[in-house]
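Re: that chain you flagged

S.,

Sorry for the slow reply, it's been a week of failed gels. I finally had a moment to sit down with the sequence you sent. For the record, here it is as I used it:
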Amino acid sequence: MLGIDVLSERKVQDYKSVYNDIRDWRRRQNNGSVAERSKVNWDDIVFEIDLLKSQEINLDYILELIYEHKIDLIEEIRRIIRASVGNRAKESLIVDYINNTNLDTITDKANILESFYTYARCRLKKEATALIAEENLNEEEARRYIALALKRGYVSENGTDLNNILPKMSPLNPMYLTKKHKVLQLIVSFVEKFKEIDRQL
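Prediction finished late last night. Pasting the structure tokens below so you have them in one place:
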């Protein structure tokens, strides 16, 4: 066994990160245009998500690394986040936290968890308020819809809840479906970024 070359943990993270980038790019390509007939069925590739989920990196692990390695941090953390399917959407949130926090004042790993989740909850409230205002959404309904989506961990289009948060507009208006799709995508991105943030420590 000693003669077998094993990839370093950093190399494994790099490969996962590149794989996730390619996977996301391929998914955008398929969604953005009419897919041509292909001899490769990308949905059936064996190493898809199961491999990555079996070695998924959780958010607390990333935060503990921030505490342990305060120097030359951002590029290293970006690499680790991008290797994690569940946390890729949180990249900007974590990098902003690093840039806006004096890490030297944090004395242990428990403190960095508390510090990050406090920061993230504050950002969650500010960004939810901004999203509702920018899209002119029905505030009460939108807050309820977003809170439920965060609790579930995903956004649902079922029922009339999504319609109820939209600004007053006739469903016959040609812009109605465009607005609905835009708002849906914004909330999906928001939930991916902030899900699991509002947990109790």
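What I noticed first: Confidence is low (pLDDT under 50) at residues 37-55.

Talk soon,
D.
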